[in-house]
Design goal:
The complex is a heterotrimer. By secondary structure, chain A is an all-alpha fold. Chain A is built from three helices and no strands. Helix content of chain B is about 70%, strand content about 0%. In chain B, helix 1 packs antiparallel against helix 2, helix 7 packs across helix 8 and helix 11 runs parallel beside helix 14. Chain B folds into two domains: about 120 residues, no CATH class; about 190 residues, no CATH class. Chain B starts with 14 loop residues before the first helix and ends with a helix. By secondary structure, chain B is an all-alpha fold. Chain C is mostly helical. Helix content of chain C is about 75%, strand content about 0%. Chain C has three helices and no strands. The longest helix of chain C has 30 residues. The chains are: A mainly alpha, B mainly alpha, C mainly alpha.
Chain lengths: ~80, ~350, ~110
């Protein structure tokens, strides 16, 4: 059962990465980047609970805070230039 | 949780982990090719941030949570923020060259040749995860067996970082502090004497309203600070320590400044305060080292603080605090210096 | 935690995680197939609000009642609050930008 969830998440990561590389517009790239970050956070939490290393959840928390922060910085830069 | 052990086992490498690692490595190859081929700087920033994220997930699959945490903390926010601010502080007329041109073709062939030489060189290296490779045979076994006996803390990584290889960490903190000092003296200029009304005409319309990031940053900042202190203090037990905590605090304050709509705020006072902070952080590290020498041991021998193993815990705790303060102040100071410089640059560019 | 494979907590957690994975997959299919940028934002917001939190909720059910549940709960709150904020910033910039933005979409 866990293998089905794992397989679906990996399919999402694969399709998302290929779309990140293939999209031409910068807006779609930033959107896909934000989506991929959330999916990788879910994947890391899954991996952390299923291998009983609960210190990996701290890594997922840090990743969550900082990925959103970096996306905001990019969008604010795009607003600020003329 | 014991039910799930049929899919993953804790201490051996089986086929599912190899498949996952190979999948992420394949994604890395795709992203690197896209970075090499892409022509616009903003797209390269996003793609390299994605590269850092996939690397962080890969480090977790290879059972290195400390490295994964540091990669996520620094590769995610700090390097992206620095590159974006540098783009704001420089001229954006990039020299655009065709993809298929003579210098590009020559460099392509040179890189192919170097790649072949490297592959020929590392065929002889031991396989990934082999038990009796030279790395795993002597020194790793010594560290793993002797950390609870000689030093008394649970995390071998913190023991190696703080005690067994303490001089390396001293050098790293010194390097980061020197980088901060150099950028400070290069970029701290006074505001140029210009007509302020021309600058105010360029304001964007949405700044007059209260925006949603003003609400969210009020709650994001305290939660992140508490979590960063947790990571700092638990460096001896779980993955963490001074480097990661400093990077988190610096990143959240960077978000605080970026989400700020007040563009006339003078940053010189904060920059000078952060400069003194970075010196204080390194001073804490050096004071602990000199203190151990004064108590009768060698330089950086924590055993001499109390004459027992407890000295190691006290010593590593205090130097992690010093490292955390240095990293936080230097990262935030470099970001604010780049902002300060970019504002001067934009004011001059608008007048011309 | 008992030794049987099919007790009630495991079943609830598996249902939640499968739903979460299904919503994430539908989000990425929507991201690829919708025509315009503003419609793609609708697809991605499904993942931010339903996809990832449902997977984490399933993991919370699976891990009992200890510190791990609290950390997962903080993670869910973070993604709930900051995820839609980022997407809305991007959408707002797309709608209200005053320049042509000619160098945003260029492949050069």
């Amino acid at each position: 059962m866990i293998a089905v969830v794992c397989y679906l998440l990996i399919l999402c990561i694969l399709i998302g990465t290929i779309y990140l590389l293939a999209a031409k517009s910068i807006f779609i790239k930033i959107l896909t980047f934000g989506y991929l970050n959330n999916i990788i956070i879910a994947f890391i939490s899954l991996y952390a609970l299923f291998t009983n290393n609960f210190s990996y959840l701290d890594v997922a928390l840090i990743y969550a805070i900082l990925a959103q922060v970096s996306t905001i910085i990019i969008v604010k830069y795009m607003r600020g230039r003329k | 949780m014991m039910l799930m052990n049929d899919l993953f086992t804790s201490f051996s490498i089986n086929i599912s982990e190899i498949c996952l690692e190979n999948f992420f490595l394949l994604l890395l190859v795709f992203v690197s090719c896209a970075i090499a081929v892409s022509r616009s700087l903003l797209k390269i920033v996003i793609l390299s941030s994605m590269f850092s994220m996939i690397m962080a997930a890969l480090y977790l699959l290879m059972a290195a949570p400390d490295v994964a945490m540091t990669e996520a903390a620094i590769g995610a926010c700090i390097s992206t923020a620095f590159i974006i601010k540098s783009m704001q502080a420089t001229n954006s007329n990039e020299f655009k060259q065709k993809l298929v041109s003579l210098p590009n073709i020559i460099s392509f062939f040179i890189i192919i040749i170097f790649g072949e030489v490297m592959i020929y060189a590392f065929i002889d290296l031991p396989e990934y995860g082999q038990t009796f490779s030279p790395v795993n045979s002597y020194l790793s076994q010594y560290y793993i067996q002797n950390t609870p006996v000689e030093i008394g803390i649970s995390s071998s990584v913190a023991a190696i970082l703080g005690s067994y290889r303490g001089f390396d960490t001293l050098g790293e903190t010194l390097v980061i502090m020197v980088a901060g000092i150099v950028v400070y003296f290069l970029m701290l200029q006074e505001k140029k004497e210009l007509d302020v009304s021309i600058y105010k005409q360029g304001e964007i319309i949405y700044q007059s309203k209260i925006w949603m990031t003003d609400y969210i940053r009020v709650i994001l900042l305290p939660i992140s600070l508490i979590f960063a202190f947790y990571i700092q203090v638990h460096g001896e037990i779980s993955p963490g320590g001074g480097f990661q905590a400093g990077a988190i605090i610096a990143s959240v304050y960077i978000f605080f400044y970026v989400a700020n709509n007040d563009h006339d705020h003078d940053l010189s006072n904060i920059i000078k305060l952060l400069f003194k902070f970075s010196l204080v952080g390194f001073l804490i590290y050096i004071s602990m080292a000199i203190f151990t020498a004064l108590m009768g041991g060698y330089f950086l021998q924590y055993y001499a603080i109390t004459g027992s193993i407890l000295g190691h815990k006290i010593g590593i705790f205090i130097i992690e605090i010093g490292v955390g303060i240095t990293i936080f102040s230097v990262m935030l100071m470099i970001f604010l210096l780049l902002t300060h410089y970019a504002r001067n640059f934009q004011m001059v560019r608008e007048v011309k | 935690m008992s030794e049987l494979s099919f007790d009630i907590a495991f079943t609830i957690a598996m249902i939640l995680m499968l739903l979460g994975a299904f919503f994430s997959l539908s989000a990425v299919i929507g991201l690829v197939r919708f025509p315009d940028f503003l419609t793609k934002i609708h697809a991605v917001s499904v993942s931010d609000s339903l996809g990832v939190p449902l997977i984490l909720l399933g993991l919370m059910v699976l891990s009992g009642f200890n510190l791990i549940t609290l950390k997962l709960f903080i993670l869910i709150i973070l993604i709930f609050i900051t995820g839609p904020m980022v997407v809305m910033e991007l959408g707002n910039y797309y709608v209200t930008k005053q320049t042509d933005g000619a160098d945003d979409d260029a492949d050069e």
